[in-house]
Specification:
Strand content: 25-35%
Domain Enoyl reductase (ER): 16-326
Shape: globular
InterPro entries: Acrylyl-CoA_reductase_AcuI (IPR014188), ADH-like_C (IPR013149), ADH-like_N (IPR013154), ER (IPR020843), GroES-like_sf (IPR011032), NAD(P)-bd_dom_sf (IPR036291), Zn-ADH-like_protein (IPR051397)
Number of strands: 15
Protein name: Oxidoreductase
Radius of gyration: 20 Å
Distance between the termini: 14 Å
Order of helices and strands: EEEHEEEEHEHEHEEHEHEHHEHE
CATH architecture of the largest domain: 3-Layer(aba) Sandwich
Pfam families: ADH_N, ADH_zinc_N
Oligomer: single chain
Number of helices: 9
Largest sheet: 7 strands, mixed
CATH class of the largest domain: Alpha Beta
GO molecular function, one term: acryloyl-CoA reductase (NADPH) activity
Number of domains: 2
CATH superfamily of the largest domain: NAD(P)-binding Rossmann-like Domain
Length: 330
């Protein structure tokens, strides 16, 4: 296969990191036993960091960014996949140390792929994307902890973003009373439309952290980290839990041990990158069952392929709502 296809290629020199839109061939991709024609990818917060170079997400150069994609198998030497199979990939270092989804073709290990669940198109799978798959992992962690709709209110931080939007929609559909936290008052109607019971300003979690504050939430899904996570931990009900999956605010955690040893609060770390295939398959099957596809359409913002660098800067500034979908040109 010597024909070319469009791709973003990140390279690094003494003057820094740069992402350029080029035409490349399969010979320029990395090793793998499955070749996939990429139909859709997404723009996640991590992709924004990679494309802008604002954080050292990309650790091998040159590299095609894009931490997820969906498409059809072109050829396979892997026993689990054959030509024509529709597949989805999230994480496993793709877009970080292995070329990823921002290209017309991808060559990856078949062990990283999940067969597209029945009922999902590649477009819908990437409307879910890594953000939605991560949200489902968070919901599953809270369920495993024993949090039920009868337990009380569940807080979702960064609710207007990709993870938050899907989490609000899933939790609401499962019968939970969801409070959405956002720094964008303009998104209140959008979040109520996804099923949030109420929307509060993220500023409520920006103050000085108390070891213990008034109990408010049965559980929470947090994408922020930092002061926000520390504050909400102090507000979790006795025996409750927080699923933490992001660091949009900070990697720091200026908290005390008080919530853990005096209220029995549990903090679950959600890793979407290296989660087992079995856990991924369960998450995608749950998404096929528990995510309202009409609600999913309300979350979608389509990003033209050639405008990805500008959109990457925007997502880091919190200016992209919901799920940023990217159709990959042939």
């Amino acid at each position: 296969m010597s024909e070319t296809f469009p791709a973003y290629l990140i390279s690094k020199s003494d003057s820094g990191q740069v992402a350029e839109l080029k035409q490349i061939t399969l010979d320029e991709l990395m090793d793998g036993d499955v070749i996939v024609k990429v139909e859709y990818s997404t723009l996640n917060y991590k992709d924004g960091l990679a494309l802008t170079g604002k954080a050292p997400v990309v650790r091998r150069f040159p590299l095609v960014p894009g931490i997820d994609f969906a498409g059809s198998v072109v050829s396979s030497d892997h026993p689990g996949f054959k030509q024509g199979d529709q597949v989805v990939l999230n994480g496993f270092g793709v877009g970080e140390v292995h070329s990823g989804g921002y290209a017309g073709m991808a060559r990856v290990k078949g062990d990283w792929l999940v067969a597209l669940p029945e009922g999902f198109t590649p477009r819908q799978a990437m409307a879910v994307g890594t953000a939605g798959y991560t949200a489902m992992l968070c919901v599953m962690a809270l369920e495993q902890h024993g949090v039920t709709p009868e337990s009380g209110e569940v807080l979702v931080t960064g609710a207007a973003g990709g993870v938050g939007s899907v989490a609000v929609s899933i939790l609401s559909r499962l019968g939970y009373q969801v409070t959405a936290s956002s720094g964008r008052a303009s998104q209140t109607e959008y979040l109520i439309g996804l099923g949030a019971h109420q929307v509060i300003d993220r500023g409520e979690f920006s103050g000085k952290v108390k070891p213990l504050a008034k109990e408010r939430w049965a559980a929470a899904i947090d994408v922020a980290g930092g002061n926000t996570l520390a504050n909400l931990l102090s507000q979790i009900n006795y025996g409750g839990a927080v699923a933490a999956c992001g660091l949009a605010e900070s990697m720091d955690l200026p908290a005390s041990v008080a919530p853990f040893i005096l209220r029995g609060v549990t903090l679950y770390g959600i890793d979407s990158v290296m989660a087992s295939i079995e856990k991924r398959q369960r998450a995608w099957q749950r998404l096929a069952k528990d995510l309202d596809l009409e609600q999913l359409e309300k979350m979608i913002v389509e990003i033209p392929f050639e405008e990805l660098p500008a959109a990457a800067a925007a997502i880091l500034e919190g200016q992209v709502r919901g799920r940023a979908l990217v159709r990959i040109p042939s």
